[in-house]
Amino acid sequence: MSMQSGLVSSTPQLRTYAPATDVSVAAPAPRLEIAHAQPVTAPRDLRTEPGPVRFVIIALALTFLSVFVVLPLVVVFASAFSKGIGAYLAALAEPEALAAIQLTLLVAAISVTLNLVFGIIAAWAISKFEFTGKTFLITLIDLPFSVSPVISGLVFVLLFGAQGYLGPWLQAHNVHILFAVPGIALATVFVTFPFVARALIPLMQEQGTQEEEAAISLGASGLQTFFRVTLPNIKWGLLYGVLLCNARAMGEFGAVSVVSGHIRGETNTMPLLVEILYNEYQFVSSFAIASLLAMLALITLVVKTILERRLDQAEVPDGD
Amino acid sequence: MAIEVRNIVKTFGSFAALNNVDLKVADGELLALLGPSGSGKTTLLRIIAGLDWPDSGEVTIDGENALTRGASERQVGFVFQHYALFRHMTVFENVAFGLRVQPRAIRKDEATIRARVKELLDLVQLDWLANRYPSQLSGGQRQRIALARALAIEPRILLLDEPFGALDAKVRKELRQWLRSLHNEIHVTSIFVTHDQEEALEVANRVVVMDKGRIEQIGSPGDVYDNPATAFVHGFIGESIVLPVDVSGEAVRLDGRPLNIAAHGVASGAAKLFVRRHDMAIGPAGTGALEGAISHVRSFGPIQRAEVTLAGSEGKTVIEIDAPRDRELQAGEIVSLQPRRYRIFAAQG
Fold first, then answer.
1. Would the ipTM clear 0.85, i.e. be above it?
2. pLDDT (tens digit, 9 = 90+) per residue, A212-225?
3. Cβ of A213 and B76 within 8 Å?
4. Domain count, chain B
């Protein structure tokens, strides 16, 4: 009920008009016809749902969120620390775990860098130029989101595998892509491609090309225009895209699982190692690594919220 | 610097934005490109600036072919309708931008740049805003900063695209006068685009009236107002009464009734009679070319505006006439109307 009164008091307009009909205070003369036109007798604020309905809706949402999001998160950390902090740290210091962390960071670094460049180029092309096939390109950018990650991984197996199109040639030249870092990086780049482009396209479309045109008419070269005008204008959107791209790159399981080959200490990323350890009943080790990924998620969430706020305020930069 | 534009054609898909446009702008002129939206005026301005390329034709600036140079090499100051200030830079850095991106060989040192920016901000009377961001400025202030930024590169010509279009009426008026006095001071050849006739007539030395990708008339503000070359110009500039008439020889008929005015050589057939509101003399019934009943009179300032209903075979035609207040008109009065000055243009199509 306190919620309801809070809502009503935040709508002072209705308060002043509504009771005027049955309270002895005379309504101001010019507003009389309004009162006549619509006698307000409603006992509650008609613009929102009745209190019980709202209560049920909010309760449902909160319950759902706790059961499916908060509870699992708590379980991850509880299991990771179930044998004490010593066991937790020991699990993380295992050579296998360290190798997985290292590999994950490496793959994330590669795919974020590549997608940063590709994403800016794609967003630039889409938002600043008119050309045939633009709609098709926009649709294509979303493909990695609409395809199951396992399929994405399988594509690379079909391409680079021993029975694949390029497999024999690669083998003859002793180039290892599948079951090695390049394959994992490729699959991750594919899966995480849309993030940067998706974050930038609406932003760049909204900003248009006027500032770039102004820069060029003032004598700036193409590169000067990009680094002095375009990039500063999209930096928050770019960071946002990079952040989500990074989170997905580190957490990707399906596509990487197909191409990695699960060579222990060599081609296992953190998510893959979590599964392997879990299957071997090494719960503490498994959840210890899972807890790192969970922390990454939490940090991502916090930074994401901050960045979203910056994006909203992008119109008003403060003194930096 | 003089600008010359010859035979410019520009199409966007199937839409002809510019259709064989020729224009000469003399050194030091302040020229207005006036026309409704879609008339091609902004496209012409962007082509001169190098922000758009014509399909065919020539553009020369100070005698040299401008089309061999990109926008960044033309040294043309461009002021955008929505200012296009760099939102992440302070006012100072915005104005300094053109100086900072110069090739290293000719770039001035920091002290010179600072002095120059200060000078420009003084010129637009906004030196006290140097450390603000564009979002913290009013529309009029932004437009003046945009102008200062364009002037920083010592442009050979200055192009302004609807410079006051996004401002409210009062600020607009102030900035107009300010732009004209600024032009008197710095004398750079300037072209500005506007759809506001008052703005064009008040600010420019010469007005170019455009419609549907063509130039309809080029002339002094007085010229385009008093001697419109085409029906479009007459209708677009100033308020006009337009009546459909028939011309046969020298006789002009409205709705079958002869009007005692001469056709002045307009070809026989359907035509349109244009009369300025204040060029229609009101007299007692039975003395003029047209007759009608006053349905409404509004008086303000030195004039009274009468709505006169002309009865005709094809229903009523209501026209508005501005009359001096020497004789107060009454609603319901039957009056006759005689055009003092008028133009007849053959109907097109």
1. no
2. 999 999 999 989 99
3. no
4. 2
- Residue B56: domain span: 3-233
B188 & B324 share domain? no
Asked if the structure places residue B255 within a domain, the reply is no
B24 contacts chain A (CB < 8 A): no
**Which chain B residues are closer than 8 Å to A314 by Cβ?**
87
Q: Is B105 helix (H, G, I), strand (E, B) or coil?
A: coil
Residue B221 lies in a domain: yes
pLDDT tens-digit readout, A223-236: 999 999 999 999 88
From A262, A242, A243, select the one nearest A300 (Cα to Cα): A243
Q: Residue B36 is part of a domain; what is its CATH number?
A: 3.40.50.300
* Whole-angstrom distance, CA of residue B254 vs CA of residue B246: 6
Q: Is B72 on the interface with A (CB under 8 A)?
A: yes
Residue-by-residue DSSP string for B177-192: HHHHHHHHHH--EEEE
Query: B49: closest CA among B27, B68, B30, B75?
Result: B75
Written as one letter, the residue type at B40 is G
Record the pTM: 0.76
Instruction: Give per-residue burial for B267-291: e unless 16+ CB within 10 Å, then b.
Output: eeeebbbbbbbbbbbbeeeeebbbb
* Cα(A230)–Cα(A207) distance, integer angstroms: 9
Measured CA distances, A142 to A147, A188, A201 (Å): 9, 15, 12
| Same domain as B226, residue B100 | yes
